[in-house]
Amino acid sequence: MSEFWNPYAPLDARRRRLLGAGAVLTLLALWSAVAVSGLVSPTKLPAPWQVLSAFAYLAWNDGESLLLTATLWSVGRLLVAGALVTAIGIPIGVLMGAAPRLNAALSPLVDPFRSAPVVALLPILVMWMGIGEAMKIAFLFLGAVVYLIPMVRDAVQAVPQSYWVSARDLGATPWECIRHAVVPIAMPRIADAVIVAFSVMWTYITVAEYVNAREGLGQLIQNARRFSAWDQVFAGIFVIIALALATYQGMLWLKRRRYPWETQL
Amino acid sequence: MSAPAAAATTASSKPQISVVVRDIVQEYPAAGGGVTRVIDRVSLAFDKPGINLLLGPSGCGKSTLLHLLGGVRPHGVTTPTSGSVLIDGVECTGAHDDSVMVFQRYANRPDLSVFDNVAFPFRLKLWKTRVAESEWRQRVGDMLRAVGLSDKAGLRPAQLSGGQNQRVALARALVLRPRILLMDEPFGALDAQTRDEMQRLLIDLYRAWPCLVVFVTHDVTEALVLGDRVIVLSSQPARVADDFEISEPRPRSAEWQRSRTALALEERILNQLHASPGKGQVRVTI
Question: Smallest CA–CA separation between A190 and chain B, in Å?
Fold first, then answer.
């Protein structure tokens, strides 16, 4: 117990997993106990096994998988929006990080949106773009890109000046310095920004699919709620959490593989 | 003698170089308004290859002077406040193709291998057009051998020690075959033993590629071990307090370093530094 209050004491992987799994199981046990005790009506809080059977029903019923279709739709939207966020947001962030004048001009247009109620923009987007796919993609894009751009800019600005000075001295043009001496070193942090952008999009997916979605996990939850099928609502939420977690872990793994040299700069 | 005649005589002998620092004054805006003079009317001339040590207490403005020579200019301040730097008679205001600088922070790209770090300049337009790929590959290989990193060519900087990283930086500078090599306390962050090794390496590299080396240090021993010429700067504002040559051939033995000549030079330097008021520090090893 002497190591309990020591933030620097390493914890071995086995113990860490054990503690994590223990907490999750404890919560599940508490939830089950509440469900069994009848303290809360099952219409308000379905039991874990009810959620599990709802999951099984959604996963496979009558020769089709509602869950798979919904997941593919949601993942598809996320990927399209993610591609746009990356392709548009990274260059803008890099330019802002590289040129203080661009940053001064553009940051008032970008930074405030990080704390803006993006959800409140949804009706406006509907008004502008209708209720089709374009609106949903645009909403996901906006929600994530306002996080990505400032993070990419900060990543570029965090590169120590010595790299720039040294490259300049070797005869690099300013643009060559950015391309060959600054951006390559900022890449791991830029990758972090992309990971955050995808996490943000997973949290917004239900909102994006709130209006007139025929398919998608958000629509699935929305539909279940309409029929007070709370077990299905819970199942849908857990699926989104699981997918978001898998995306995060997968991207983190990819990032570490691609930038194994990343150190604490 | 007229200028063209002078040029003709130098062209006939071995490759010559001329770097002239003329009446440099450098001032920075001070915290409470007004200005702080960092460099006060420094004039120096270098007209042949050699290792020139710029020695002064920490914070005396010697790095600023070196950066002026290399064309590294800070932002928001006019540099120099007055005076000029002439390379081969031409006023130099920015980075110069003939001079390369080695910094204390070696600025190696963490994502590139040792080989690619040394080859880095050849990715730039300036050198790509001047040196063919087959040639620079050859040069990088030779340079890695010269600094003793041939077997580490595929490693990344994080897998190297501080001394080895500085070897990479040195190789990257010399692979361009500069006529002027500027070194800004390059070994200042290394431990004593590694510093000795690096000093010996520099002596070997210089023998293979004699160029005009201007080497900034606050280490009196380093100046005596390396310098063909030692220029002592006073602390703020920097003025030339002393300027002398050491004829003892390198490498200079430990016996020589303990000899009466060496001790007298050390005494002379320390006296000059103590004569100038200021708070900067110098280092004497041994």
Answer: 14
Query: Helical H runs in B152-276?
Result: 162-174, 192-208, 220-226, 254-258, 260-275
Mean pLDDT of B137-157: 95
Nearest to A89 by CA among A81, A77, A99: A81
Closest residue in chain B to residue A165, using alpha carbons only: B72
**Which one, of B127, B125, B147, lies nearest residue B204 by Cα?**
B147
Domain ranges, ordered by start, for chain A? 67-258
pTM of the predicted model as reported, rounded to 2 decimal places: 0.86
CB contact under 8 A, A168 and B172: no
**Residue of B148, B184, B111, B144 lying closest to A165 (CA atoms):** B184
Nearest-CA residue of chain A relative to B102?
A: A166
CATH 1.10.10.10 for the A67-258 domain, yes or no = no
Q: State how far Cα A263 lies from the chain centre.
A: 24
B117 backbone φψ class: left, alpha, beta (φ>0; ψ -120 to 50): alpha
Chain B hits for A168, CB-CB cut-off 8 Å, are 72, 95
Domains of chain B: 17-94+224-286 (3.40.50)
Using CB atoms, which residue from B110, B125, B156 is nearest to A176?
B125
Q: Side chain identity at B174, as an amino acid letter? A: L
What contacts A138, CB < 8 A, 6 or more positions away?
A125, A129
Q: To the nearest whole percent, how much of chain B has pLDDT over 70?
A: 92
Are the Cβ atoms of A261 and B156 closer than 8 angstroms?
yes
What is the rounded distance in angstroms from the CA atom of residue B212 to the CA atom of residue A87? 48
* A180 with B124: Cβ contact below 8 A: yes
Burial class (CB in 10 A: 0-12, 13-18, 19+), A78: buried
| Chain B residue at shortest CA distance from A262 | B110
pLDDT in tens, A203-242: 999 889 888 778 899 999 999 998 889 999 999 999 999 9
Q: What is the ipTM, given to two decimal places? A: 0.84
User: Taking CB atoms and an 8 Å limit, are B124 and A262 in contact across chains?
Assistant: no
Outline where DSSP puts E strands in chain A.
none
Is the CB of residue A181 less than 8 Å away from at least one CB of chain B? yes
